[in-house]
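Changelog note: in this version the structure field was regenerated for every chain. One regenerated record is shown below for reference.
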Amino acid sequence: MASFMLIFRGGDSPGDSPEQLQQHMQKWMAWFEGLTRAGAYKGVGAPLAPGGRSVRGSRKVVSDGPFAEAKDLVGGYAIVEASDLDAATEIARGCPTYEKNGAVEIRPVRAM
């Protein structure tokens, strides 16, 4: 088995009512519970808070963030185990973010 990072982008719903947001969050929780039961979810990862900083270049210049276009902001991440990239992609296909026009980036985690 290999580890993969699922990076959740977009999928924001500023016009949703509190009830709609709660229903969507319940879908996320159910998805994570299913991954946990299947042994795929490694139990690390979380939504990210707004803001942050970036340190770049040889001069180590610090700037406030986030830095991507608003539509491309990283909303959170999770680490899952799968046999290969294809299996990790199938796991990502079950994510509820697509209902809100979100995206999931699947990245292999290099063993150290």
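Spot check on this record: The chain has a mean pLDDT of 85. Residues 2-108 form a domain with the Alpha-Beta Plaits fold (CATH 3.30.70.1060).
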